[in-house]
Amino acid sequence: MKVDPSLDVTEKSLQNMLFSSSDFKSSTFQSGNRSYRLFYLDTMIELAVVQEHVIRPLLQQTEDLNLREIVSVLECSETELLSDAVNALVQGKTVLQIDGKMKLYLLGTEVKKERSVNLPVNERVLRGSNEALIENVHTNINLLRKMIVTPDLVVKYYLVGRRSNTKVALLYLQELANEEVIQEFERRISLIDIDYVEAPGFIQELIEDRKFSLFPQLMITERPDRVRSYLMNGKMGILTNGSPDCIILPVSFWAFLQSPDDYQVGWLLGSAFRFLRIISFVVAISLPGAYVALVTFDPRMLPFEIALTLQSSMQYVAMPPVLEAIFMLVTLEVLREATVRLASPIGQTIGVVGGIVIGTVVVQSNLVSTMMVIIVAFTAVASFSIPSYEMSSAVRLLSFPFILMAATFGLIGLELSYLIVFTHLARLNTMGIPYFYSGLNKNTIMDTLFRGPIRSLKERTKESLSKDNSRIRIRRGKHE
């Protein structure tokens, strides 16, 4: 719909398109032989900016100049469509019309209120940058541009959601990111047709390859230094307005067992920590199942002293081992969920007191054995050592089918479970790139299973499909 030259007709049209919203305001003033009218949402604009940089220059003009030469607002555009004006209003812009002109000026006067850059909440920093992403996409891009001072850093904006019009930013390094992966992402995000986007969870689920896989196929982080390291490896980052998280793609299975802190310590310590996380991953998945299999089917495989200890702890327990394990793991998940949802001081108290009380009561009432409490506690600690929340949650859920398979088929059930999981991982793709076995390549294994010395990390990871695989060209202080 085109703009009418009459100020009153334009105001009425905009008011109808905004359904007579109470925060829609207009202001008319005269300057020279011109009559101006401002349209705005008073809940979205910075009134001082409008007064100082729009109204005052217009009132002080003495010559018949172009509007762009009069107002001192950096963001100024023109349109002849009322739909563009309405979209600008809900974004916090001020719309200006000159009486008799079939043109609207869109002035950037939106109010900017945001929380300050703070410490990461969900990813604890041991050594390194203490800055965390916030809900404003422009501030997040500012943080990353200060860390990556190069013109190669490309930012592309998209609007996702028919009603929400959520701003999504794609970041990558032009000289490193693979063009085919970028095109594939653009194809997938262009196919998203949804009312609104609850970022980043909606975007993650709508663009990933396998919808029914427990394993996370995209990484979510709130640490800008972690985003920088992945961008430097040829990967891409996705920022969404209103979310303090960044989606990294493509990623492999091994990326979820890595931490930026691995590179802030010596390579021997970094390798030890990373290998410990891999062991924790295996333990968190299979330890309860292994206990159930050994106690139910193959107790003779245990040393005699341990078998006697288990027998004494299970002597008066009424429930079978499989129900013990499931009951304790479900109880643990309920406690964890309760501590997350409650306020921080109360949640910590409930977690500690609830764990002690429940653990003591269930043992004294002979519902579960003391050994099962130890097994479940060790399983929980092992799952919490995984740096990624998504992977840690997937590991805790995977322990349940492992328990059921072990209770049905014994140790053979555990072997079958591992075979199914490894087969699934080997077939899994992320943005069309192998998810699991790329980390076992001989050229990149030193940065997946282990954290090798910096001088040995000569190539970027295979799943990045980077244009430039060479990462370091220095050996013993001399250029190659």
Describe this structure in words.
The structure is a single chain. With 480 residues, the chain is α+β, with helices and mostly antiparallel strands. Helices cover 44% and strands 14% of the residues. The protein has helices spanning 7-17, 47-60, 67-70, 82-90, 137-147, 179-190, 201-207, 224-231, 267-296, 304-313, 321-341, 344-364, 370-384, 389-409, 411-427, and strands spanning 24-31, 34-41, 76-79, 94-98, 104-107, 153-160, 166-173, 219-221, 236-240, 246-249, 429-430, 433-434, 474-475, 478-479. The strands form four sheets. A five-stranded antiparallel beta sheet has the order 1-2-4-5-3, with helices on both faces. Helix 11 packs across helix 13. The N and C termini lie far apart (64 Å). InterPro entries: Spore_Ger, UPF0353/GerABKA_families.
